[in-house]
Specification:
Layout lengths: L5 H20 L8 H10 L6 E4 L6 E5 L10 E7 L25 H17 L7 E7 L7 H7 L10 E10 L7 E3 L2 E4 L1 E10 L3 E2 L9 H19 L6 E10 L5 E2 L2 E10 L2 H21 L3 E10 L2 E3 L1 H15 L4 E3 L11 H4 L4 E7 L25 H25 L4
The structure holds zinc ion.
Length: 410
């Protein structure tokens, strides 16, 4: 197996840091990231790869053909998201953004790490037993850029089946050079549950002549929490948060209606499906028992991010092999945030995980978290990040080669 080396990724680091800092100083939000896309295309200039750009979003899909591809007819996908957040930056970096947006979630590092992986694998492409698809994705922060790239065919880009898909997310409050993941549920599904409670307005002093949607809606919040604790497995958690509750216009008036919006986090497809089927029914019947009509909608916006068991161990073992077991952490619990890479992992076995990116010389736990205007990611481990991604792809393809070789030929 000819694999990229630490010497190669070390040599790439200064160039990667320069790209990262350029991206950081010019962040773009959402699905349309023309300048970011240009930076990616410039960084891949002259490489022997197939590049397509998105129609409805400024994605970049790169296919690298391996010299030994005929031996496996398989491909692996690596993903990096590229979008920033609408936050005024307060990091004090000399390359800080001044345009009102900020790479507060570290996607500048994801984009750059993936550029590095293209370069590393490109140098070894002659012996690569398969193809690699690099998914440069806009719009992760609530725009479902992953879903849109799937619609535009990113999973079919290589023309051969994908046997593995991998991605990483940096965190500003975990130490550089450390990796975190786990088999199974890794990040939550996010569903939005909207309820309109329809009562009958009246005088505050005469509730018996009205149907009070505020009292019904308030009682419903507690009722749903109780239902969760009695009817769902405590080890397959459901988190309900009523983020909005709007009703009323005056202190002495019972209003006609009340509006609730509830954020629902679940960690398995089973719990997501049950929440979707049962919570609207419980809410409707509870409100009906109080004489209240209701309208509701329950929409699962992102599925849970589920790591394939074998691929999650492979992810952690590959990192341990490159950087040491003491820097590799199989975490006990999933994270309650959501991630649209879940859409890829719902279709291709793979693994997602976090990489520490705290500033060197600062205690990681003292650093501000991702999405803070003061979140500061260090970029000294970017070479290692690129090397790790490159090894995930190359080693996974070699595993496919071993499997193909073991199969009796037809
Ligand atoms: Zn992020």
């Amino acid at each position: 197996m000819s694999l990229p080396t630490t010497a190669e990724s070390d040599a790439l680091l200064p160039q990667l840091q320069q790209i990262r800092r350029a991206l950081h100083s010019a962040p773009e939000v959402g699905l349309d990231l023309p300048q970011t896309q240009r930076t990616v295309l410039d960084a891949l200039e002259g490489l022997d790869v197939e590049i397509t750009t998105g129609e409805g979003l400024s994605s970049v899909t790169v296919v690298l053909r391996g010299g030994r591809r005929e031996e496996t007819h398989a491909a692996v996908l690596l993903r990096g998201d590229m979008d920033a957040l609408p936050i005024e930056e307060e990091t004090g970096f000399d390359f800080a953004s001044t345009n009102g947006a900020m790479h507060a979630c570290g996607h500048d590092l994801h984009t750059t790490g993936l550029i590095g992986a293209v370069h590393l694998l490109h140098s070894h492409r002659a012996v690569l037993p398969g193809d690699v698809v690099f998914m440069f994705q806009p719009g992760e922060e609530g725009w479902d850029g992953a879903g849109k790239m799937l619609d535009e065919g990113v999973l079919e880009a290589a023309g051969v089946p994908l046997v593995g898909a991998y991605g990483v997310h940096v965190s500003a409050d975990q130490p550089q050079g450390h990796a975190y993941s786990r088999p199974g549920s890794y990040m939550a599904a996010f569903s939005r549950f909207d309820i309109t409670v329809l009562g009958r307005g009246g005088h505050a002093a005469r509730p018996e002549n009205a149907l009070d949607p505020i009292a019904g809606g308030a009682a419903l919040i507690g009722q749903l929490q109780e239902y969760i604790t009695r009817r769902f497995n405590v080890f397959d958690s459901v988190v309900l948060t009523t983020g909005m509750f709007h009703a009323g216009t005056a202190v002495n008036v019972i209003p006609e209606s009340a509006e609730l919006s509830i954020s629902v986090r679940t960690f398995t497809p089973e719990a997501t499906a049950r929440a979707e089927a049962e919570l609207p029914r419980v809410a409707r019947e509870f409100l009906a028992a109080h004489g209240l009509d209701s309208r509701m909608s329950f929409e699962t916006i992102l599925p849970a991010t589920i790591n394939d068991d074998t691929e999650a161990h492979f992810f952690l073992d590959t990192f341990a092999d490159l950087f040491g077991r003491d820097r590799t952490h199989q975490v006990p619990f999933p994270r309650a945030g959501s991630e649209d890479f879940s859409r890829v992992l719902a279709r291709v076995p793979g693994s997602y995980g976090h990489l520490g990116a705290a500033l060197l010389g600062v205690e990681a736990s003292e650093q501000e978290v991702n999405h803070s205007p003061r979140a500061r990611h260090g970029d000294e481990a970017l070479g290692g990040q690129a090397l790790f991604l490159a090894h995930l792809a190359a080693r996974r393809l070699h595993r496919e080669l071993d499997r193909a070789a073991a199969e009796p030929s037809a």
